[in-house]
Design brief:
Elements lengths: L1 H19 L10 E10 L6 E3 L5 H15 L5 E3 L5 E5 L12 E5 L4 E5 L2 H14 L15 E9 L7 E5 L7 H13 L4 E5 L1 E2 L2 E2 L8 H4 L3 E2 L21 E2 L4 H12 L4 E8 L4 H6 L20 E5 L2 E4 L10 H17 L4 E5 L6 H5 L1 H10 L6 H16 L3 E5 L12 E4 L4 H8 L4 E3 L2 H4 L16
Parallel strand pairs: 2-3, 2-4, 4-6, 8-9, 9-14, 14-17, 17-18, 18-19, 19-20
Antiparallel strand pairs: 1-7, 5-6, 5-7, 10-11, 12-13, 15-16
Helix pairs in contact: 4-6, 8-11
């Protein structure tokens, strides 16, 4: 009987605590104080905003609520409503630029912040407090209860980023917007847009039209490692792909800005350039006019005795001045489109075997008084950084850029582990930690026996 009584007591304890600890928020707030009771959202609920810059946010909240609830809600300017969105008259020093305070009582909801970004994140938390049916795209019958709570929240990290690779597989403009919607719910503020790679060039460059007329399309098959498809047949042309016009990109940038997300474009150089070289083969060492956008076929071996062995050329020629004229055109248009202070230039996995054999590269190495072909990447990246500086932009790249004498102003993304990031920080670089074992969503996330294979 004692054991039965103890078991029932534990169940009652768990149930009681489950009833109290019902709030689960992503990310977890700095401080959350819950009390019993709730506010009930009804058709008479009113919404207010106290500043012109938060009008759009209030209207977005209204639109989010109208469809699932069926309530004819509206927003008005002022400080009196059931749900108030208020920019502080006097700054709350604790919460900073992106923080907020959210209070729910039986009478209503008050969200206050120093800036609209914080107010936006407070609204995302409010939506998570509502029943999950708030995400429905059709009228849903439920009790729209919001638990009584006081939340104080502000971010630990200024850069909260997530990447979307649209090169391997093209995602439409509407799909990119949907992605931005999803990441904004969880308070990401940086969208890393991987726009170019071996498998497709996705951004319109008006001064270089072949980048999209040729480079945006590959043969409709793909593979990885042990699943490599056959090499291209003679005469095969690309039909799979797509690209974003500059008007598309402006629209997406504005869409992201409305959700307090900065877009960082990535133009991956000097490696991962097969799509660019398919369009302009004269920028390579071999100037192979048979170059094509990669469909997933192998382009180098990984574990030769002498390192990676070249199969298909995929790197720009660092000794050719035409390459830097090409990049100046590309980055001029990219810098004009994107308001972000950063442009990501890749710099990862550069196969340098052809550089070692190229007469122009050998002459450049002699001029630079260096014996190591790896130093050519440092020379290349420094040239690229100067181009970006001339456009008012800062360079950011993967941790391989440390292998050359990159300037301290460059920002490093440490993807091969944490060591490169630690080294870069000690050298005075700003660092974004992206170690693949912990941050790559295409790796296995659980027990290997029940997971799909990697990639």
């Amino acid at each position: 009987m004692k054991k039965v009584f103890m078991f029932l007591f534990i169940l009652a304890f768990i149930k009681a605590n489950a009833q109290v600890n019902i709030i689960n928020l992503i990310p977890q707030p700095v401080e959350i104080k819950q009390s019993s009771g709730f506010y009930l959202l009804t058709k008479t609920t009113t919404i207010s905003f106290n500043s012109t810059e938060s009008r759009k946010l209030a209207e977005m909240l209204v639109q989010k609520m109208i469809i699932p609830t069926g309530f004819n809600l509206t927003a008005h300017q002022g400080k009196t409503a059931d749900i108030e969105l208020n920019i502080n008259d006097l700054p709350n020093l604790q919460i900073g630029k992106e923080g907020y305070v959210l209070e729910v009582s039986a009478k209503g909801v008050k969200i206050s912040a120093n800036q609209t970004a914080g107010l936006f994140y407070g609204v995302q938390t409010l939506l998570q407090l509502l029943p999950p049916e708030i995400e429905s795209r059709q009228l849903t019958k439920t009790d729209w209860k919001i638990p009584k709570v006081k939340i104080t929240d502000y971010p630990r990290f200024g850069w909260r980023g997530i990447m979307l690779d649209v090169s391997r597989h093209f995602f439409s403009k509407e799909e990119v917007k949907a992605y931005i919607d999803q990441i904004s719910k969880f308070k990401f503020n940086t969208f890393h847009w991987h726009l170019t790679d071996n498998h497709g060039w996705r951004i319109e460059i008006k001064s270089l039209p072949k980048l999209t007329s040729v480079g945006a399309w590959r043969v409709a098959r793909a593979g990885f490692f042990g699943m490599r498809p056959e090499q291209l047949l003679e005469g095969e042309t690309g039909t799979y792909g797509g690209f974003y016009t500059q008007e598309d990109i402006k629209e997406i940038i504005k869409y992201a800005e409305d959700r307090h997300i900065t877009i960082i474009p990535e133009i991956d150089v000097p490696g991962h350039c097969m799509a660019a070289l398919a369009a302009y083969p004269e920028l390579s060492c071999t100037k192979d006019t048979h170059a094509h956008v990669n469909s997933g076929t192998g382009w180098h071996t990984w574990y030769d005795n002498d390192g990676r062995r070249h199969l298909i050329e995929g790197s720009l020629n660092p000794s050719d001045e035409n390459v830097y004229e090409f990049l100046d055109k590309v980055f001029t248009e990219v810098a004009t489109l994107f308001p972000s202070p950063y442009i990501h230039v890749g710099g990862d996995e550069v196969v340098k075997k052809l550089w070692a054999k190229d007469p122009g590269c050998q002459a450049l190495m002699k001029k630079l008084n260096t014996r190591h072909v790896e130093d050519l990447q440092g020379y290349f990246m420094n040239r690229v950084e100067q181009i970006l500086k001339s456009k008012g932009k800062r360079l950011i790249g993967w941790d391989e850029i440390l292998e050359g004498s990159i300037s301290p102003e460059a920002t490093v993304m440490s993807w091969r582990g944490i060591e490169g990031g630690i080294e870069a920080a000690k050298m005075g670089h700003e660092v974004v930690m992206t170690p693949y074992k912990f941050t790559y969503l295409d790796l296995q996330q659980g027990e290997a026996s029940i997971e799909p294979i990697v990639y």
